[in-house]
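Standup notes
- DV: blocked on the single-chain target, sequence here:
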Amino acid sequence: MGGVRELAVSFVAPGPCGVAIRDRLKHLTPQDEKVLRAVGAHQGALASRDLKTRCADGLEHGADTWAARKRELTALSSSRIAGAITKATHDQWALARRCQAAHIQNLAAGIKTLRHRLSLPLGQKGTKRAAGGYRSKSEWFRKSRRLAALEGRHAAAVADWRAGRVRVVRGGKRLLNTRHHLTEARLTEDEWRQRWEAERWFIAADGESGKRFGNETIRVTPDGEVSIKLPVPLAHLANTKHGRYVLTARIGFAHRGAEWADRINANRAVAYRIHLDMDRGRWYLTASWQRPLVQTIPLETARARGMIGVDTNADHFAAYRLDRHGNPVGEPHRFGYDLSGSAGHRDAQIRHALTRLINWARRVGVAAIGIEDLDFTPEKTREKHGRRKRFRQLISGIPTGKLKARLVSMAAEHGLSVVAVDPAYTSLWGAQHWQKPLTTPHRKMSRHDAAGIAIGRRALGHPVRRRTAPPPHDRSDRAGHRTAQAGPGDRGREGTRPPTTDRPPGGPAPSGKRKRGTSASKTVRDAPSTQQWVQDSLMCTG
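- DV (later): unblocked, structure below
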């Protein structure tokens, strides 16, 4: 296809498999906070010790070492708390391994690009698919030194991967580095220490189906009473029997409260986590549970009522509605957001924009939303884009992975499906085939709006271009129909016009063969003659 890469097949994104809701623990007494801090510090120390042991085991870990660690923790807490700590440790170690593999892949991509550009002559121009040579000898030298540094990092990372060594910081690497920049962070040493200790606390418990209210360690009753099974060394702090401490706070989940109540009344597993937000000085309880995997609807079912194509940009979603034939309907829509500021602000902006998009999709009556299956991981390296720092910052700021997961989760709650398509050439072909034809004095079409149409058409299974080339006038029957997206059985497709017959205004159209009325003559030649022709006798010969 002239250098155009093969496009991936569109698919319906699977729905969410888990749910998490959160509520604030209000009106805690000083004794309640004292107990929570003591439990968090004690179990946090156990979690840190267990993570250290797990990282030291590396690839030699097995069922025996896991059982040994759990027995050691059980003597210092309880069997259920030990199980929760060891499970969290394994999840954290596995996450570190995945991040390590992604880091190795990123280093390998940078090394490949550097080697390619260093092998080219100075000043050689690049192409759309590959960068050219460096501009000067000094730049070539600096990049050669960077290549040596990346090769050293890559070799060290590969050695760690093969040995099973990971580097994990309980509490977060960013908060750890903040200790050396307290002035820039506007924190004192005591404030930083409090944050550091709070992030390393561990007050969590996995759910157990069949147990009372779905959890024996952190129990929440239907009326909102929260109680904690204290570890053995802290059993003296209990204020009720069986070594439990009941908090004065009451929980009432405003979001998904009915679903949560149904689970605990049926004694189905619900996991809980209690944490302290140091910025606000508030305690929160998070409840989470798993959902059974729901079979996604077929792709043809998702396409039955049309599609909304969404183009993701750095500051807005450009959306356009299309019918099932791929024709744009109505006007383009934009849903803006601001990704500057804190992570909480960015997350709220994305949620608000997605909420408006989903509400509009429900109003127009479509069954699916088409988005690009974006992944900018190989595009963020400085070796590929060089001095284009603003472009690298732009693509790094777009939350592609989290955006898709959040859209799938939010759309599933409203009965909408998400169709992921290949992002190749959507902006280019959308602008080429749709931007100019749809631009009118009252409609301003941008490149992003046209890309939304291209994404929607690809999700519907149609080509991006508006029409195929018309067939030759003398071979139209043999060449076939000229409209690409309309099938032979679709009403309204281009073809032979229905017969026009004389009928009264507003009356039914009569059936039968087409009748054509007599038309009045418009030329002198066509006018009927009123004279009789007579042969001239002089023209006769004997």
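- Follow-up: Residues 521-527, 533-542 have pLDDT under 50 and may be disordered.
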